Amino acid sequence: MTSLEYDVVVIGAGPVGENVADRVVRGGLTAAIVERELVGGECSYWACMPTKALLRSASALRAARQLPGAREAVTGNLDAAAVLGRRDSFASHWRDDGQVSWLESAGIALHRGQGRIASARVVEVTGVDGVTTRLTARHAVVVATGSSALLPDIPGLRAAAPWSSREAASAGSVPRRLAIIGGGVVATEMATAFAALGSSVEVLARDGVLPSAEPFASELVTESLREAGVSVRLGVEAASVNRDDRGIVHIATVDGERVEADEVLVAIGRTPNTQDIGLDRVGLVPGAWLAVDDTLRVVGGGGWLYAAGDVNRRVLLTHQGKYQARAVGDAIVARAKGEKVEDGRWGRHAATADERAVPQVVFSDPEIASVGLTAAAAETAGLRIRVVDYDLGTVAGASLQADGYKGHARMVVDEDRKVVVGFTLAGPDVAELIHAATIAIVGEVPLDRLWHAVPAYPTVSEVWLRLLETYGR
Ligand SMILES: Cc1cc2nc3c(=O)[nH]c(=O)nc-3n(C[C@H](O)[C@H](O)[C@H](O)COP(=O)(O)OP(=O)(O)OC[C@H]3O[C@@H](n4cnc5c(N)ncnc54)[C@H](O)[C@@H]3O)c2cc1C
Ligand SMILES: NC(=O)c1ccc[n+]([C@@H]2O[C@H](COP(=O)([O-])OP(=O)(O)OC[C@H]3O[C@@H](n4cnc5c(N)ncnc54)[C@H](O)[C@@H]3O)[C@@H](O)[C@H]2O)c1
Fold first, then answer.
1. For ligand 1, what atom is nearest to the CA of residue 277?
2. How far is the CA of 212 from the centre of ligand 2 (A)?
3. Model's pTM, two decimal places?
4. Residues with beta carbon inside 6 Å of ligand 1?
5. How far is the CA of 316 from the centre of ligand 2 (A)?
6. Do 373 and 422 meet the contact criterion of CB atoms below 8 Å apart?
7. How far is CA 39 from CA 187, 278, 333, in A?
8. C-alpha–C-alpha distance, residues 184 and 182, integer Å
9. For each of the chain's 473 residues, which pLDDT tens digit applies?
């Protein structure tokens, strides 16, 4: 068996693993990364990028249709083949040459194969040819193996060959009828995309649509999906699934209803990729999410084992995983060099924002952009809050953006500290507005000072002024 030594070994070359390795190399250490599929991970080939490419053309078409003059110039329907073609290019045609060259240019060694922890600081990589290489880490092993789609135990479901988010994101054609089990982010975005591409879509949303978002956001998205012809069944649960000889999928619901479709997408959350990575060799539980401290060190992991990204379940989003990667990479370098680790709140090596300042955009129609706590989450956290609402459609910039602009904004204020702790925007093209709220929350900018942050006229950002005026000075 070949044996090699590096300062740091990272298992998983998704966006998070890549960034951890880059950070430690920039800090002067050596790093190897282990990948069993494509360098770039879920995000590049089956998640963020291809799904947003599936959604973007429809969103541009909707925007044009909301404007007199532009509307008249747009006469046909969405060209599904062209959309799928553009999606293919955003998934780099499921080839990772580009990302591999980047690894080379960054000075990161790539080992292809399944990585498994063999003992403390030792990772064995088994390639497709069955050959195993032993990698020893002088300082740290970082697990960045991500997550996979969770399949519920519904009788007949597995045999019916359901789509997971992977098959939806990489679909080669548009099914005539698509049933979706789940009502979260994947379900909502894929219902929006496939309805626009021409599928007849039926959503079985047991717990509602976007149940963890502000209720107004869920309502606006549900209403708009229905306007787009999607059948959204709230509170409905699948009891059994069967694909017949003709390939048609039949779903029976718990309350006795029946749904027929050509494909069924299951989107009910994720499970960690920790089943076969050797956790049992170091006293941890295979298949479990990896609990970490604020510097992403695995609890019970001997001090040399770290976990970043989806696999630690803190936040299942690319940008937040990359934020963790910067913190963990720098913490490993600091510890290796005997430098001080700044692990206090908002310290350089602590992923503090994971707790209270996570931005997310759901690319539905309308877009939902949020950061921090919803009103319900703030109350659960025991904060004394005031909720400030504003009709986004009445802001001058929004009414210029699109005729009949429909949207809503909510600011959640911590009354004891007089700072913003949550912000949600629902409306066309609100995605780019959320970073201002992220800065206000992370910076804990007092409301008194926010009055001096003047939004340009006539932009949609003027909603900030309207929210402050509604709150009062
Ligand atoms: C449909 C969908 C859309 C999404 N859209 C967005 C979005 O718009 N914005 C956003 O921020 N987030 C989005 N996400 C979430 C985002 O994809 C994840 O948060 C992100 O990919 C996590 O990155 P990661 O590096 O932790 O894991 P992954 O991207 O899952 O990468 C992990 C890598 O590790 C490899 N691996 C696993 N086990 C081993 C092993 N034992 N040995 C070797 N290699 C291994 C895998 O092959 C994979 O390449 C979306 C998710 C889904 C499902
Ligand atoms: N634009 C984005 O940022 C984006 C897009 C897609 C996915 N993602 C991330 O990927 C992750 C996975 O997305 P997801 O939509 O699979 O998960 P999710 O957690 O967003 O939603 C899953 C939904 O399924 C429901 N559910 C759970 N078990 C069920 C069951 N047995 N039957 C029916 N419904 C059930 C839940 O109540 C929840 O509403 C999320 O954490 C999300 O943040 C992000």
1. 41
2. 10
3. 0.97
4. 11-17, 34-37, 41-43, 47-48, 51-52, 114-115, 144-147, 165, 169, 186, 273, 277, 309-311, 316-319, 321
5. 10
6. yes
7. 26, 21, 23
8. 6
9. 899 999 999 999 999 999 999 999 999 999 999 999 999 999 999 999 999 999 999 999 999 999 999 999 999 999 999 999 999 999 999 999 999 999 999 999 999 999 999 999 999 999 999 999 999 999 999 999 999 999 999 999 999 999 999 999 999 999 999 999 999 999 999 999 999 999 999 999 999 999 999 999 999 999 999 999 999 999 999 999 999 999 999 999 999 999 999 999 999 999 999 999 999 999 999 999 999 999 999 999 999 999 999 999 999 999 999 999 999 999 999 999 999 999 999 999 999 999 999 999 999 999 999 999 999 999 999 999 999 999 999 999 999 999 999 999 999 999 999 999 999 999 999 999 999 999 999 999 999 999 999 999 999 999 999 999 999 99
Query: 329-332, long-range: CB within 8 Å, 24+ apart, which pairs?
Result: 329/19, 329/20, 329/21, 329/22, 329/23, 329/24, 329/26, 329/27, 330/23, 330/27, 331/295, 331/296, 331/297, 332/8, 332/20, 332/24, 332/27, 332/29, 332/139, 332/140, 332/142, 332/306
Atom index in ligand 2 nearest the CA of residue 211 equals: 39
CATH superfamily placement of domain 366-471: FAD/NAD-linked reductase, C-terminal dimerisation domain (3.30.390.30)
CATH homologous superfamily for the domain 158-268: FAD/NAD(P)-binding domain (3.50.50.60)
From the CA of 339, how far away is ligand 2's center (Å)? 40
Residue whose CB lies within 8 A of the most ligand 1 atoms, among 111, 317, 320, 362, for a mutation test: 317
- Encoding tokens for residue 415? 């009354």
Q: What is the DSSP letter of 296?
A: -
What is the CATH architecture of 2-45+91-148+271-353? 3-Layer(bba) Sandwich (3.50)
- Helix ranges, 425-462 (H): 434-442, 447-450
Instruction: Tell me how far apart the alpha carbons of residues 257 and 238 are, in angstroms, rounded to a whole number.
Output: 9
The yes-or-no answer to whether 2-45+91-148+271-353 and 158-268 have a common fold is yes
Considering only CA atoms, which residue is closest to atom 21 of ligand 1? 43
Decide: 259 and 162 in contact? Cβ < 8 Å.
Answer: no
Ligand nearest to the CA of 369: 2
What is this model's ipTM? 0.98
Residues enclosing ligand 2, CB less than 6 A?
A: 152, 181-187, 189, 206-207, 211, 237, 267-270, 316-317, 360-363
- Ligand 1, pocket-test mutation among 145, 210, 312, 367, most atoms within 8 A of CB: 145
Q: Where are the domains of the chain?
A: 2-45+91-148+271-353, 158-268, 366-471
